[in-house]
Specification:
The chain is of the alpha/beta class and about 500 residues long. About 45% of the residues lie in helices and about 15% in strands. It has a 7-stranded parallel beta sheet with strand order 5-6-4-7-8-3-9, sandwiched between helices. A 7-stranded parallel beta sheet has the order 12-13-11-14-15-10-16, sandwiched between helices. It has a two-stranded antiparallel sheet with strand order 1-2. Helix 12 links the parallel strand 12 and strand 13. The termini are far apart.
Length: about 500
């Protein structure tokens, strides 16, 4: 598809100025296709994956739709999001695009934050971005009135339905003017979404981005296969060996997020976590630390990670295999953003999980390769290289005269320079005290038939034990029926008679 520059879209001058200041020259496919349609006032269904620029695709027309000359401010645009993080991200994006338009006043509302402060801000808001539950709270309090609404946007509509917001969404839509414009963004099109569009949209225009070739071009995709009880060892090994600067580790449950947080903290990693049980203020602080580089590793569940917008995540690790292809694409889409390369690694356990992750990669029209975990020697080599680099940097700096004098004194006592250097390294670093290398000898290896050699040995052992069990049962059965084996007869003849 031919790239279209933002200047060709004839944006509002102040929005064009903001887009230029943000460093964007060309619109993404979803932006170039949806912005003209939304501007035309028609209802739109946009099927687009995360990381395609969809927030700006609806934010730009939303800003342009807003009448900033109203005598009494009213809410003219409502954007519904599944999570607090997405609401915050949407509001932040609108503020960036409207940075030269102070009369555009976006307000984000979501649970876990003081509702009284939100009530005060809503009095002057003309664009509201919120989660369905908190929007309903304000509607009941009469602090959010939608009688003058011009546009409503359902961002990640499929995820909102998955989270059980169907009734809330329907209630909100029923309370808006029939003349409103309804915009729906969704990564998938399940039947529930189609029913929603039939009920609340008027002749919607469908836009599908990358449906036939849903590729993640700048992301290297890999998986490792280890026994289930070695998954935590594998995670620590990957982090130690490859040393990613900024990593997101995904888990399927909040419990596992907490477990891994404790484990990695005990291993001296810089790690924090987000999931739905963590209070909003703490989640905001965690995300701010991760964006600013104060935290190197972010542990997250799929739902809590909605809205993570960090452009320089260099590695995503799926500790648990995602529940479906859409979650997989969303997870790995956290890396390789803004034209940068990224790497995703999935830790699998067993043939079924390997087959599942291969299917997910195939669904995204991309390739995934098996990654061999580093051997103990490779791990030690990486540690040694790190020490050599540290020592090289230290030797290139000016030497402390006292240490030079001590070295000469040790040489005069008969020690070689190699002995002195080795002892100094031992004192400073300990016994190769950077991560303890982990051996993965019991990593599963597969033969041509797909069976693991470890399982094959176990099967043979089971057969031998079963054969011994059969023989024992046969012997017992023979004796019970009065049959006497010749060996049993000889043994009985050798027995001494019982003396009473």
């Amino acid at each position: 598809m031919t790239q279209i520059s933002f200047s060709e879209l004839n944006l509002h001058p102040e929005i064009q100025r903001a887009v230029t200041a943000m460093g964007f020259d060309f619109a993404t496919p979803v932006q170039s296709e949806t912005i003209p349609l939304i501007r035309a006032g028609v209802d739109v269904i946009a099927r687009s994956q995360t990381g395609t620029g969809k927030t700006a695709a609806f934010a730009i027309p939303a800003i342009e739709t807003t009448d900033t000359e109203e005598y009494k401010p009213s809410v003219q645009v409502l954007i519904l999001c599944p999570t607090r993080e997405l609401a915050q991200q949407g509001a932040e994006e609108i503020r960036k695009l409207a940075r030269f338009m102070p009369e555009v006043r976006p307000v984000e509302i979501y649970g876990g934050a003081p509702i009284d402060k939100q009530c005060i801000r809503l009095r002057r808001a003309n664009i509201v971005i919120g989660t369905p539950g908190r929007v309903m709270d304000h509607m009941r309090r009469k602090t959010l009135k939608l009688d003058k609404l011009k546009m409503i946007v359902l961002d990640e509509a499929d995820e909102m339905l998955n989270m059980g917001f169907k009734e809330d969404i329907e209630t909100i839509l029923q309370d808006t003017p029939e003349s409103r414009q309804t915009i729906l963004f969704s990564a998938t099109m399940p039947k529930a979404i189609l029913r929603l569009t039939r009920q609340f949209q008027k002749d919607p225009q469908l836009i599908e981005i990358n449906r036939d070739q849903m590729t993640i071009e700048d992301i290297k995709q890999s998986f490792v296969e280890v026994p289930h009880h070695r998954k935590k060892d594998a995670l620590i090994t990957l982090l130690n060996y490859y040393e990613p600067q900024r990593t997101i580790v995904f888990c399927n449950t909040k419990k596992m997020v907490d477990e891994l947080d404790s484990l990695l903290t005990s291993q001296k990693f810089s790690v924090q976590s987000i999931h739905s049980d963590i209070k909003q203020a703490q989640r905001t602080a965690v995300m701010q630390d991760f964006k600013n580089g104060k935290t190197a590793i972010l542990m997250a569940t799929d739902i809590a990670a909605r809205g993570i917008d960090v452009s320089d995540v260099d590695m995503v690790i799926n500790f648990d295999v995602p529940q479906n292809s859409e979650y997989y694409i969303h997870r790995i889409g956290r890396t390789g953003r803004a034209g940068k390369s990224g790497w995703s690694i999935t830790i699998c356990s067993g043939r079924r999980e390997v087959a599942t992750i291969r299917d997910m990669a195939e669904h995204s029209k991309s390739e995934i390769e098996r990654l061999k975990l580093p051997t103990v020697n490779e791990q030690k080599g990486a540690v040694a290289d790190k020490l050599v680099q540290s020592m090289s940097e230290a030797m290139s700096a000016e030497q402390e005269p006292l240490y030079v004098e001590l070295t000469e004194k040790l040489v005069s006592l008969g020690y070689s320079h190699a002995q002195i250097a080795s002892a100094a390294l031992q004192l400073h670093f300990g016994s190769l005290a950077l991560p303890v290398p982990v051996e993965f000898d019991d990593t599963i290896t597969r033969d041509n038939n797909g069976k693991s050699s470890k399982n094959r040995r176990r099967t043979q052992g089971n057969r031998k034990s079963q054969d011994r069990g059969k023989n024992n049962r046969s012997a017992k059965s023979s004796r019970s029926k009065g049959w006497v084996d010749s060996k049993d007869l000889k043994r009985s003849q050798k027995r001494k008679p019982h003396r009473g």
